[in-house]
Amino acid sequence: MPTTESIPRTRFGDQSDMLPGHAQVEIVIPVRNEERDLGPSVRRLRGYLDDAFPFAARITIADNGSTDGTWAQAQELSDEFPGAVRAVRIERPGRGGALRSVWSASEADVYAYMDVDLSTDLNALLPLVAPLLSGHSDVAIGTRLARGARVIRGPKREIISRCYNLLLHAFLGTGFSDAQ
After folding, report:
1. Cα dist. 42→70, 92, 113, 160 in Å?
2. Which CATH number fits domain 4-140: 2.170.150.70, 1.10.10.10, 3.10.180.10, 3.90.550.10?
3. Residue 59, class by beta-carbon neighbours within 10 Å (0-12 exposed, 13-18 middle, 19+ buried)?
4. For the packed helices 35-52 and 70-80, what is the interaxial angle rounded to 10 degrees?
């Protein structure tokens, strides 16, 4: 199997120069009323994918029930990056439904999602998806709650996140560190 360095980068929408079996990653950004952050975040992520990510990747903006200008901005970003960014409108709010809708219709080899604030270092994306692309793993979870994670966030957000996950562990017996 080729290493990530030996696979040429290409945009998701241009299938003509893809190698047979070339991995395709679909990154979904579920949004609801995020018109302020959407444009800068998608442009930053697209720039990273084009300049530093060795696999073909498409960003899908899943607008799930926005009532502000998010949907119009998602369409503009899709026009700005044809084939590399697409916009999907899902009338019903809910992150889970948005992800299910996009992923169930996707033909990508690997599915991922990111919050619109891109609060995790984008350099963490390749180590996350590499075990999936190599066939080593079927699922990979990136978390800011794992031991050794270097994350700086406010005390309110930290407490809310830890309590939410504690409830999931207590009531559902989950075995992972971060449900998001």
Report:
1. 12, 22, 12, 26
2. 3.90.550.10
3. buried
4. 20
* pTM for this model (two decimals): 0.74
Q: Please provide the size of the chain in residues.
A: 180
**Which of the two residues, 76 and 12, has the higher pLDDT score?**
76
Integer Cα distance of 180 and 151 in angstroms: 15
Which segments of the chain belong to CATH 3.90.550.10?
4-140
* Helices (H), ranges, the chain: 35-52, 70-80, 95-105, 125-133, 155-172
142 neighbors 128 (Cβ within 8 angstroms): yes
Q: What is the pLDDT of residues 85-140, one digit of tens each?
A: 999 999 888 888 899 999 999 989 999 999 898 877 898 899 989 899 888 988 88
